[in-house]
Amino acid sequence: MYKIAVIGGDGTGPEVAREGLKVISAAARKFNFKYETKDFDFSGNRYLKTGKLVDDSDIAELKKYSAIYLGAVGHPDVKPGIIETGVLLKLRFALDQYINLRPVKLYDERFCPLKDKKPEDIDFVVVRENSEGLYKGMGEFKDKGTQDEVAIQISYNTRKGVERCIRYAFEYTRKRNKRKKLTLCGKTNVLTYAWDLWQRTFNEVAKEYSDITTDYAHVDATTMWFVKNPEWFDVIVTDNMFGDIITDLGAMIQGGMGIAAGGNINPNGVSMFEPIGGSAPKYTGKNVINPLAAICAAGMMLEALGEQRGADAIEKAVIKVSREKLKNLAAGKMGYSTEEVGDLVTENL
Ligand code: IPM
Ligand code: MN
């Protein structure tokens, strides 16, 4: 019996999560697994009413779950940064979800904004470090508000944190068993402390994986290759900030935020799965947002729970529905409503 904590969150989050849960329920019937869900309200509305975000007792409660399924966070009436740090980053850090796994896969040529790129050209995974770097929140102001003001933001990288991420990436590349190529994406030419540590650790760990081809690309060049030669990539490992940036570009070349999903993984604890697009306030309640990213996140969650057949079936159904039915992956342009897309995936399971 899996225990799934559901955080609908803000904006269109609850709508897309509902469709993902619909698909999970169909997968459970077909593949004979049992689960129960519990809703957790960590929304912006709750914050506006009560001032509450995610606290330590919430974390203690969530640790009892098999996985967390998240819709979206971000409320237009709450100052940027409060819910992001108080809910999303709090969950990632407190549950030590030190990997952010973001597959970039093109399901149909029609969805790709790049000329002449086909599904076989865009199929890679970004392993983003998810617990350190610039996201650690370290830094300070000096002489704030004066002409001499200095703002310092530190990228904090530990050997242990870097190594566990790199090891995960090597293991993942081996298990994925496609091109068996792992690219380190960094900035060794300028950020000479952080990326020296990353490069040294990468080279050392690589010695244990003679079956994996390794490569290095600067982050700026990586964005160029995503557009020019995305077929070069199999698995990419990078730090928190670079991973955040390059996976938005990754989402665009696979067809946009309507299809991009990710997992915040603690290999020894509770992981959390989410569509990577935001809460899209302007589409809230209109039944027009694309739920496929949330449905793909549900598939990733089943894979992490060990329900590989369910995960594979969901991906197949998503491919079929997006190729054969949807006009477009963007909100309001799919040719179907949010609920109808969820139904189509369910029927095709
Ligand atoms: C993401 C988002 C978050 C991040 C924000 C909402 C804090 O952009 O999941 O990529 O920067 O990690
Ligand atoms: Mn992001």
Observed structural traits:
binds 3-isopropylmalic acid; binds manganese (II) ion; two-stranded antiparallel ribbon; 22% strand; 2 domains; 349 residues; Isopropylmalate Dehydrogenase; 12 strands; ten-stranded mixed β-sheet; alpha/beta
Kindly describe this structure:
This protein is of the alpha/beta class and 349 residues long. The chain contains 11 helices and 12 strands. It folds into 2 domains: 1-98 and 258-349, Isopropylmalate Dehydrogenase (3-Layer(aba) Sandwich); 123-253, Isopropylmalate Dehydrogenase (3-Layer(aba) Sandwich), CATH 3.40.718. Strands 2-1-3-12-11-4-5-10-8-9 form a 10-stranded mixed sheet, sandwiched between helices. The protein has a two-stranded antiparallel sheet with strand order 6-7. Helix 1 (13-31) runs parallel beside helix 11 (338-348), helix 9 packs antiparallel against helix 10 (308-324) and helix 10 (308-324) crosses helix 11. It is globular. The model has no long low-confidence stretch (mean pLDDT 98). Bound molecules: 3-isopropylmalic acid (IPM) and manganese (II) ion. Residues 244, 248 line the site of manganese (II) ion (MN).
